[in-house]
Design goal:
This protein is an alpha+beta fold and 74 residues long. The chain has a three-stranded antiparallel β-sheet with strand order 1-2-3, with no helix packed on it. The protein has one helix and five strands. The chain is globular, with a radius of gyration of 12 Å. Strand 1 and strand 2 form a beta hairpin.
């Protein structure tokens, strides 16, 4: 997708996470309030959904998604 010139980690209502914590370059997510994520990774054919409420420093969606992909053997 097209990234924002002001913030290259964001574009078209999605956050771009490719390359973080070993995620494939095409990983992106529409983040919701208080820890709602849907990490989309087209190259792996997977969407990792996390519904929860963050009560602290936040949830590491990149590490969680990378761990799920590894557990699935993708």
């Amino acid at each position: 997708g097209t990234r924002s010139p002001a913030n290259p980690a964001y574009g078209a209502q999605f956050w771009v996470y490719g390359g973080r914590n070993g995620l494939p370059p095409d990983a992106y997510s529409p983040n919701g309030a208080a820890g709602q994520y849907a990490m989309i990774v087209p190259s792996k054919g997977v969407i990792v959904v996390r519904r929860g409420i963050d009560r602290g420093p936040g949830f590491n969606i990149t590490q969680f998604s990378a761990d799920v992909i590894a557990a699935l053997g993708l």
